[in-house]
Amino acid sequence: RLRADAARIEAEAEISRLQLAREAEINYLREQNELEITKKAEMSRIETDKFKLQVESIGASTIQAIATSGPDTQVKLLQALGLQSMLVTDGHSPINLMGFGQGLLGGLNANTISNAGGAPN
């Protein structure tokens, strides 16, 4: 009888300890997630402010010159401004970006991907 009570008390204590450990872990993860969200939001705000300042400092005439210039001139202007890439639109025309990612990957297609593993053609 005493051994059964002692075992029950030990089991209840272990369950209580595990519950507290899980609650502490959940609280820790929740705080980590909140910190990560705050960090991402702040980084996003910083990038947005940086972009606004760049656009303001570049000016409308320079942006227009980039948009209407040839590809070589566009590359030189973007490099001089410290920009890697830029998309200029009139804000009214829709943009189809369906093939955009493929262009970034250098025309990577399904055949290229399947052949990358050494599969015969």
Describe it.
By secondary structure, this protein is mainly alpha-helical. The chain has one domain. Helices cover 74% and strands 0% of the residues. The chain has helices spanning 2-58, 60-68, 71-81, 100-104, 110-116. The protein is rod-shaped. One of its GO terms (cellular component) is nucleus.
Which structural class matches the secondary elements? mainly alpha
The number of helical runs is 5
Mean pLDDT score, rounded? 78
- As a whole number of angstroms, the C-alpha radius of gyration is 29 Å
Strand content: under 5%
Rough shape?
Answer: rod-shaped
Number of strands: 0
| N→C terminal distance | 76 Å
The helix/strand series, from N terminus to C terminus, equals: HHHHH
Helix content: over 70%
GO cellular component, one term: nucleus
InterPro entries: MVP (IPR039059)
